[in-house]
Write a structure and sequence with these properties.
mainly alpha, 7 helices, globular, DoxX family protein, cell membrane
Length: 181
């Protein structure tokens, strides 16, 4: 009987032992936010300013117009600003649900363009924007962690409301853009 009681007490403590320590969780979230956020901010800066080998707003606008987004320069600007500010917000953990919404909105538009190409394609497939949107939504749901500017606000811990705001606002933004084109 004593052995059974010891096993039960071990089982009761085991789930806590398997959880990541809070510091590891915060560092993991920081790494995820910084890598995805800064890469997308750079991607937006390529569109807006021609940084990092990008073509700038005028040339990107021509590409957007060729895809059916007219006026192309306006939509390229919207995408560039959304990626830059959303990426920086995600990286800093600042206004995380709204930063995630900005990225989700842009990625929904990218997914709409990629659907005819399929999921796994060498260039322009659905997998990249789908992964970025999933990461942004996940960070909104989990919260940005303690190494974030949002740590002082009540949405610091994420939750279903934060995820719903990110997905809803991102989806609404994407729908407006898609209906306007």
């Amino acid at each position: 009987m004593k052995l059974l009681a010891e096993r039960r007490s071990e089982a009761d403590t085991r789930p806590h032992d398997l959880r990541a320590p809070p510091l590891a969780t915060d560092l993991g979230l920081l790494l995820l936010r910084l890598s995805v956020g800064l890469l997308l901010a750079g991607h937006g800066a390529q569109k807006l300013f021609g940084l990092f080998g990008g073509s700038g707003l005028a040339a990107t606008g021509k590409g957007f117009a060729a895809l059916g987004y007219r006026p192309g320069e306006v939509y390229a600007g919207v995408a560039g600003v959304s990626e830059t500010l959303g990426g920086l917000g995600l990286a800093l953990g600042f206004l995380t649900p709204l930063a995630a919404a900005a990225l989700i909105g842009v990625m929904i538009n990218a997914m709409v363009l990629a659907v005819p190409k399929g999921l796994w394609v060498i260039s322009g497939g659905l997998e990249y924007p789908l992964c970025i949107a999933a990461v942004a939504l996940s960070i909104a749901a989990i919260g940005p962690g303690n190494f974030a500017l949002d740590r002082f606000f009540r949405w610091r811990d994420g939750g279903l409301t934060c995820a719903a705001v990110a997905l809803g606002a991102g989806g609404l933004g994407a729908a407006i853009v898609l209906l306007a084109t």
